[in-house]
């Protein structure tokens, strides 16, 4: 989702494993009860894109460092 990299919430998970340069977080819905909260997150993400406020653009180094951390576990 096009949210700030530091966004936190019960539905949000780190999305760097997907290697999307501009989408740092994903939402994980576990029940129908999560839909309202997801709707608010989606509206915020859309607003950030429309207003050009969303400026996340991860470079290759970010993903290489992330891959290196997973390999060393």
Characteristics:
single chain; 73 residues; mainly alpha; two-stranded antiparallel ribbon; 2 helices; 2 strands; 38% helix; 8% strand; flat
Q: How is this fold's topology laid out?
A:
Layout: E1 12-14, E2 25-27, H1 35-50, H2 60-71
Antiparallel strand pairs: 1-2
Shape: flat
What's the arrangement of strands in the largest beta sheet?
1-2
Spans of at least 5 consecutive residues with low confidence = none
Q: What's the Cα radius of gyration?
A: 14 Å
Number of helices: 2
What is the N-to-C succession of helices and strands? EEHH
Query: Mind describing the biggest β-sheet?
Result: 2 strands, antiparallel
End-to-end Cα distance, whole Å, is: 27 Å
Number of domains: 1
| Total beta-strand segments | 2
Question: What does the model show?
Answer:
- The chain is built from two helices and two strands; from the N terminus they run E-E-H-H.
- With 73 residues, the protein is mostly helical.
- The protein has one domain (12-71).
- A two-stranded antiparallel ribbon has the order 1-2.
Summary?
The chain is mainly α and 73 residues long. Helices cover 38% and strands 8% of the residues. It has one domain (12-71).
């Amino acid at each position: 989702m096009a949210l700030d990299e530091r966004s936190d919430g019960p539905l949000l998970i780190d999305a760097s494993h997907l290697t999307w340069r501009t989408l740092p977080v994903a939402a994980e819905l576990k029940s129908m009860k999560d839909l309202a909260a997801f709707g608010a997150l989606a509206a915020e993400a859309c607003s950030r894109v429309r207003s050009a406020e969303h400026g996340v653009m991860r470079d290759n180094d970010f993903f290489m460092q992330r891959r290196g951390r997973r390999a060393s576990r």
